[in-house]
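Please decode residue identities from the backbone states below.
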């Protein structure tokens, strides 16, 4: 297995699998923040200590396998070009924050890209486990198993009263962020999302864009995750999040039915116009592409478009991002050049699907 595999494929292998409520919930993720006991945290550590952590992870876990997570590949960020780093961010395999500390940062990625372990991000380890659809409980079980496997060789920073100790106080306790990625076009079209987001925050949850904190909700895709990590068990956090997600699913389905009853023909026209835009445009910026991809994905879920799979739309959401486009072109591109290439890539991919 080579690094090229992670960079060249826009859609991770695990994303091709079926998952519960896949028409609305794209993925479930559990992320655990962990630090080495008696070691300075990355935000304050010197070069020697950061390298020491890197080398330990490389020596103990590179090319190892755990259960179904085969051949964990160790990737130092210093081996990557700026474009390659952007691609891994666009695939959610690393965070934008990790790039800022890339001189002493690395990641471990499983063969199917379902697991990625960031090294020397804000904490020594950020362990991520992904599942398609709404599978928070399964992701939690697997993250626990993976965490236990790592802990066989790592002494974690842990306090009997406070729980896991982390760089950021908001992560102290379980050190866990549970999140789901949701496609909510009907709630956006009916403007109900503006009412629901403040209500969700009252449950200790937060709604962000597709790439987490500070990012936009491109293509009507929202990330819903917990804010509270202290004073609740991991299971309680997941139960609370899952309860709210089920309510969002119900609201989204009701909103879709409402639109179909009131303005079904207008919605159908919008969806097929978006399909035509994707199939024939010569210039397309990222916002227009995301909007059209979202419309077509809704058309697939409603059964109106049957010659394109939902996976292709997932793929296009990543493939049309700046990092992937520049990797595809094998050179740096100006924004206007990316807009031309984006339209071309979408046309080619839709033709291939047909």
């Amino acid at each position: 297995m080579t690094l090229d595999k992670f960079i060249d494929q826009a859609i991770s292998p695990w994303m091709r699998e079926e998952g519960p409520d896949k028409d609305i919930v794209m993925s479930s993720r559990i992320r655990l923040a962990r630090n080495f006991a008696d070691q300075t945290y990355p935000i304050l550590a010197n070069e020697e200590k950061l390298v020491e952590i890197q080398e330990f992870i490389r020596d103990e876990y590179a090319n190892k396998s755990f259960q179904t997570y085969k051949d964990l590949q160790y990737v130092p960020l210093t081996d990557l070009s700026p474009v390659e780093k952007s691609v891994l961010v666009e695939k959610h395999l690393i965070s934008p924050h990790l790039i800022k500390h890339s001189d002493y940062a690395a990641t471990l990625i499983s063969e199917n890209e379902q697991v990625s372990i960031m090294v020397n991000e804000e904490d020594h380890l950020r362990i991520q486990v992904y599942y398609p659809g709404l599978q928070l409980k399964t992701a939690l079980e697997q993250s626990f198993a993976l965490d236990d496997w790592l802990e066989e060789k790592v002494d974690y920073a842990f306090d009997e009263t406070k729980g896991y100790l982390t760089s950021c106080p908001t992560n102290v306790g379980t050190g866990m962020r549970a999140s789901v990625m949701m496609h909510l076009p009907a709630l956006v079209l009916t403007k109900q999302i503006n009412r629901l987001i403040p209500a969700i925050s009252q449950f200790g949850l937060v709604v962000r864009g597709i790439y987490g904190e500070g990012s936009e909700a491109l293509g009507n895709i929202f990330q819903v995750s917990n804010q509270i990590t202290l004073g609740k068990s991991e299971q309680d956090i997941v139960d609370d999040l899952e309860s709210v997600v089920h309510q969002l699913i119900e609201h989204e389905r009701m909103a879709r039915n409402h639109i179909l009853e009131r303005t079904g023909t207008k919605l159908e026209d919008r969806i097929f116009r978006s399909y035509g835009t994707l199939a024939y445009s010569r210039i397309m910026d990222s916002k227009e592409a995301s909007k059209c991809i979202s419309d077509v994905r809704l058309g697939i879920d409603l059964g109106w478009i049957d010659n394109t799979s939902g996976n292709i739309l997932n793929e296009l959401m990543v493939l049309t991002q700046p990092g992937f486009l520049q990797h595809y072109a094998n050179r740096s591109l100006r924004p206007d050049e990316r807009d031309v290439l984006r339209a071309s890539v979408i046309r080619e991919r839709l033709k291939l699907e047909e």
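Observation: The beta strands are 25-34, 73-76, 106-109, 115-119, 125-132, 158-159, 163-164, 176-183, 205-208, 221-226.
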